[in-house]
């Protein structure tokens, strides 16, 4: 195997891949996606990658073509005799379906893991999986990067003396607690009850936010219903202000309208998923340097855990 690195990008993630490649210090590799008349795609790698380290960057957000293009590109790289293939998936789609929560439903996250491995991936690199246990769905190495390495340095330059961290649901307590421990602040929890996916029946605040500047911590925002409901509830309970951080801005349906009308001052997100529209309330922090460093560490056989933020 050669020591050369080639970085490729699927179409839907080129906006981020170009920044990652620039941070790494080289141009993106030559990948063309041809299409048949019916729309069927055919990724074509327009350069030799024989024996090389190949990093294929692509978030698998909707539409489904993003996932299909990733699988086909991995297969193309394998058949082109790449020495080592790492699928860099900043946003891992279908991660919310990580277990059977009712009868006769798929465990989609496991199926996607199987497809990536079967296509020919030797390694997976991703950011803030919806559930940590998804790493166990793979029988190949998984580098699970954490957005704490992006957000914590951002907040270090600010006055955190009046901040309280909050989780918008019980499932996000671990994420919020990590920030609370790092900055030695309190944590509160919004306990919600759903009738069905995407529809909140009720929400209760556990903890005191009186006079506090609250920061909600989540991994992704889809319809923004939970996040905005939590923000409004926090302000109703006497908070001074409320902001939110969430790695993946899926923001479907009327999410943007909800955010604009909510009590949220700011929603801070990463760029693993492109914004569909500009909003004065949404601030984007780049994950490019984090991924570029992780790619370099994988290539140089150096530690990935060194990129994690240690508790103080």
TrEMBL record:
EC top class named in words: transferase
Catalytic reaction(s) noted: D-ribose 5-phosphate + ATP = 5-phospho-alpha-D-ribose 1-diphosphate + AMP + H(+)
Protein's UniProt keywords contain Cell cycle: no
GO molecular function, one term: ATP binding
The EC number(s) this enzyme carries: 2.7.6.1
Residue ranges annotated for the Ribose-phosphate pyrophosphokinase N-terminal domain, each copy included: 6-120
SMART domains: Pribosyltran_N
Keywords assigned by UniProt, alphabetized: ATP-binding, Cytoplasm, Kinase, Magnesium, Metal-binding, Nucleotide biosynthesis, Nucleotide-binding, Transferase
Name of this protein: ribose-phosphate diphosphokinase
């Amino acid at each position: 195997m050669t020591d050369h690195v080639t970085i490729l990008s699927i179409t839907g993630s080129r906006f981020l891949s170009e920044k990652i490649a620039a941070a790494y210090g080289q141009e993106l590799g030559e990948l063309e996606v041809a299409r048949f008349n019916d729309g069927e795609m055919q990724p074509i790698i327009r350069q030799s990658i024989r024996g090389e380290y190949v990093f294929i960057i692509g978030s698998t957000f909707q539409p489904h073509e993003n996932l299909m293009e990733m699988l086909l590109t991995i297969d193309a790289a394998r058949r082109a005799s790449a020495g080592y293939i790492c699928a860099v998936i900043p946003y891992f789609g279908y991660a919310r379906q990580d277990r059977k929560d009712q009868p006769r439903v798929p465990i989609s996250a496991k199926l996607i893991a199987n497809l990536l491995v079967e296509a020919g991936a030797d390694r997976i690199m991703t950011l803030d999986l919806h559930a940590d246990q998804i790493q166990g769905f793979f029988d190949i190495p998984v580098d699970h990067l954490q957005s704490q390495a992006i957000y914590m340095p951002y907040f270090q330059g600010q006055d955190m003396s009046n901040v309280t961290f909050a989780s918008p649901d019980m499932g996000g307590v671990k994420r919020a607690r990590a920030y609370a421990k790092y900055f030695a602040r309190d944590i509160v929890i919004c306990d919600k009850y759903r009738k069905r996916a995407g529809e909140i029946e009720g929400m209760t605040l556990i903890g005191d936010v009186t006079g506090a500047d609250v920061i909600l911590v989540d991994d992704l925002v889809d319809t923004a219903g939970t996040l905005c409901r939590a923000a409004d509830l926090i302000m109703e309970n006497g908070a001074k202000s409320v902001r939110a951080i969430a790695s993946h801005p899926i923001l479907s349906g009327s999410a943007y309208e909800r955010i604009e009308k909510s009590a949220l001052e700011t929603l801070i997100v990463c760029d693993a998923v492109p914004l569909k529209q500009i909003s004065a309330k949404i601030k984007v922090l780049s994950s490019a340097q984090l991924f570029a460093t992780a790619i370099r560490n994988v290539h140089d056989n150096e530690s990935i855990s060194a990129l994690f933020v240690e508790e103080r």
